[in-house]
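User: I'm putting together notes for a lab meeting next week and I want to include a structural view of one of the chains we've been expressing. I don't have a solved structure, so I'd like a prediction I can at least talk through. The sequence is below, exactly as it appears in our construct file.
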Amino acid sequence: MQFGVRVDKATKLETDFANERTTLTTRATEAETKLKAITDKATKLEVDFANERKSRVKVILDDGVKRAVITQAERATWEQDFANEETFPAKLEAFSKLAPKMKTASEVNARGLGQRNSDERTRQTKVIDAVNEEMAAKKCDYDTAFANVKKTRGELFEGMKQPVAA
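Assistant: Thanks for the context. Below is the predicted structure for the 166-residue chain, given as structure tokens.
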């Protein structure tokens, strides 16, 4: 009978061992599944970060070309410089301190159009008012009234530009 007790104990141990093995195999499979999910997520984040960095570099370089900080020919060199993750912050700081190589801002020269001073507008208004009063008072045409105002109120015409006959 002793032999039968030993066989029962051995069978029980084998069953316990098989159960433990199944439990450990299940846990290992779950751990591997979790590890794969974490690895996949990390890979996705790395790809997303790389794409975001690439887009940022494109915007930075487009702006640099637009502001004439770099030329189109220098763009490839700067793309290579920005590709290195360790030196990216230093290269970005150096890039931000670059001065424009050429002037790209437009300058409109309207030759003073719309920039007449208020005295000139006031004089013009006074001349128009005086010519209108002269036309109403003497019942004459514009040219005659203008000539009369020019003779009698010459101070209104002193600061005005006069046409030059060719």
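A couple of points you could mention at the meeting. The chain has two domains: 12-96, 118-156. The chain has a mean pLDDT of 84.

User: Perfect, that's what I needed.
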